[in-house]
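Ticket #4471: structure output looks truncated?

Reporter: J.K.
Steps to reproduce: submitted the chain below (173 residues) through the standard prediction queue, then opened the result file.
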Amino acid sequence: MSSDKGCDQHGRGTPIASFAYTDQEKAVLAIARHYFTSFAAPQCHGWISGISCALCVFGDRRGPEIAVAVLSAVQAMRRARRSTFCFNSPDCDTCAAHVTPHEQTLMSALRATAGQRREAAQGHAALLCEGNPVAPLLRALETLADRALQPNWPQSSVVPLGAAGVKSRAGSM
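Returned output as attached by the reporter:
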């Protein structure tokens, strides 16, 4: 993992602890960040780290389906968005300990979906999709919430906020 050397000191966002995310939500965010890195810097092959993170946190049985569910949500959002999505690097401890406003909106949409708060989920999805159709994103978030955010599920390891691998800085896709 990298230090904060060379990172944007001002654009990191809010400390992750401010949101009281569950370990499962932190893992989903970490996996998504690896996928974001794949799209922002394809030569980094962040998707490999995303899958590894899912396997590490959710295990060999559930990890693959959660990795695909996260990717499905990311892809649904990417297809609808027209502007850049700003995210923090999963490979920098300091950056990974913060949440950008875009990441916060994604996680709020996931939480609202998991909590069956349909109107809230639609509102967050509308922001993420920039007014474009939200149905594909909402379907993907429902699948992701069903797979990854199960209550009382034992984890196989500590959730990695950063992960070994590509050393990248905060980015956008």
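Triage note (M.O.): checked the attachment and the full token line is present. Residues 1-5, 156-161, 163-170 have pLDDT under 50 and may be disordered.
Status: closed, working as intended.
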